[in-house]
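question for whoever is on the cluster today: can someone run the full assembly for these? two chains, 578 residues total. i dont have access anymore since they changed the login thing
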Amino acid sequence: MATNAAGRARPPEASRRLPSTTPAEWHGFRKTVAVAIRRFLCLAAALVLVIAEGCDAPRDPRKTLERVRGHVLTAGVSEDPPFIVRRGNEADGIEADLIRGFARELGATVTWVWGSQEQQFLALHGLQLDLVAGGLTAKTPWKASAAITRPFVELHEVVATHRGIPPPVDLKAVEIAIEEGDPVGEALEKEKAHAKRVPHLDGSEMLAAGTRTRLLRLGYLPFRELKSEERVLAVPQGENAFLEALEKYLAAHHEAVSRAAGEEP
Amino acid sequence: VRLRRPIDLPEDVREKLHKATRLQRWSLAFMISCVVVIYFSLGQSQAMKAVFIEDILAVIPPAAYLLSQHVRWREPTQRHPYGFQRAVALAFLASAASLLALGVFILIESVTTLLKREHPTIGVISVFGHQLWLGWVMIPALLYTISGEYTFGRVKQPYARDLHDTALAADARMNRADWMSGGSAILGVLGIAIGWWWADALAATFIGVEIVRDGWKNVIEVLRDLMDERPMPVEEGERGDWAERLRDRVSRLDWVTDVDVRLRETGNIITGEVYVVPKTTDAIATRCDEVEKLARDLDWRYHDLSLIAVEKL
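^ ran it for u. tokens below:
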């Protein structure tokens, strides 16, 4: 025992310099913990298997999956070319194909509902729609009232040149065409570029900005990335079986969608 | 000023103190691992969020314990003549107050979720290329934390008792609250799995109540400590009759007519005054040391007692 001049033990010294752990001393305790954790994990795995297989879980509190399967999937959509393009009452495009494919997997057909996104989200919350799509990003403020899927594709906003035109070294004061109302305009302003807003973007501009997918389709050559965003779909809150089915479908088709969008998977 | 004597711990208590310190290091490492595990299985579940917050808070007591170990045994100085034992109470107060505040926060959030009928959404994650519903990941994660918290809670209790350590006892209680919360969270996730959307918020409510209760108890206890409450047993199975034992022992001395004591605790030790009506004032200068020595033989927790001679009690 460490003692000082007065013959008293000194806990301060002792607590500062702890003797190194002898292997035998804590072996017993560590073993107890290890055994307990292993036992609990085995139990957990068994429990999960039994419930997942036996009870057909997760289930929907409001039975969306059951209702859609073999019948109709009602999707609220907004235009977002080339992902969702309106053809009369029908929808075309990469995202529309994805939704149609998911419905087909459930043996259902899709009814497309065109309208304002806020109304669509209200309808989704009240289960009047089964899905909302069209330019939704992972950061959507509707997160709070709807279930958001994992991203099915990551898009890049880029600046691109017309074929055969050399890209400028600096974007400063350069005139770049964007479609009227495209949020990418803000990123261009930050770069001090001059945004030329056109009512409808086509392949006739020298320089253009927008999603890589769209510009590639219009025949441009992207050379500069501005920002990226992740696209998602929205389904009713808490309908976990429906969400699980959709997310598994999206994961299986993630690569194909990315390739179709001209992005790296 | 005259400094309080350094604390003199018996060999077996010192040994226990080392072990408790090592136990708290393991406990700290384990609680940090729990926070990481829960973080990676966190979905939009209220109960999981509550467990996550609780696990983060559960890191504080072992960390505070280890931190206070560095301070509390310091020898008294001119500026702090009574020593640093109260460091424990301060660390304890901080964690108790934050526990209480967060319990209230969790309770409010889960009750509003219930009232607004918000349905918890749990999606899918990718585990080694397999697409798995996150709920199935939450359950093993929770079981991992529960098993460790249960074991640590049980192992800490005897140390808290033998060392008369309030902070350690509170930590053991917090471990108990933690594993019970983990259990309710599992029920909540299972509820979501079979389509009971309310099970999750209900579980979170129970967890909130548990945390509030725990926080409240701890706050009250540490405030009582700081208000010089009489020494109380910190854990079941500890004798709490320090005043009686000391009075009985001193009254048996041949120079004592009558005796009474006034005791309080600071940190692990018990200190205070012994009021004696002496038969004689002979050798009065050595009596104080005599009383201190016999008190220490009675129990190592008595430290720095003052002997006060009075005419009558």
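summary bc i know u wont read the tokens: The helical segments of chain A are 11-16, 23-54, 64-68, 94-105, 117-125, 184-190, 212-217, 240-260. The first helix of chain A runs from residue 11 to 16.
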